[in-house]
Amino acid sequence: MFEQLQKKWKVGALQLGLIIGTFAIGGSATGLVAKKIMNALSVQQDWLWAIIYILLITIIWPLAVLIVSIPFGQFPFFSRYIRKIGVKMGVVNSRES
């Protein structure tokens, strides 16, 4: 599985480890920040809580991963990765470069 990711992303073993670590820390940070915001909002309805939480996660995750990628030295990888996701979702315009 890891070999397939290395080939797909064209990275070495060390960089793959840094990328996976960035995903893990960024995802955990996203959950923590979103929970803190949800506690501050104190939403009572379960269905509304779930909708707001999903929206928060969607907004916070790319930012958290980009911030965490800086000290890991993976910012160029994650800026391309998040841009690619944005293009697929139709949120970001694709550009010729």
Report the mean per-residue pLDDT as an integer. Answer: 92
General shape: globular
> What distance separates the N and C termini?
30 Å
Number of strands: 0
Portion of residues within helices: over 70%
Count of discrete structural domains: 1
Main sheet: strands, sense, barrel: none
The SSE string, one letter per element, is: HHHH
Annotation field: number of helices: 4
The Cα radius of gyration reads: 16 Å
Low-confidence stretches: none
Category by helix and strand content: mainly alpha
Strand content: under 5%
Describe this structure in words.
The chain has 97 residues and is mostly helical. It contains 4 helices and no strands. It has helices at residues 2-9, 13-41, 46-72, 75-89. Helix 2 (13-41) runs antiparallel to helix 3 (46-72) and helix 3 runs antiparallel to helix 4. It is globular, with a radius of gyration of 16 Å.
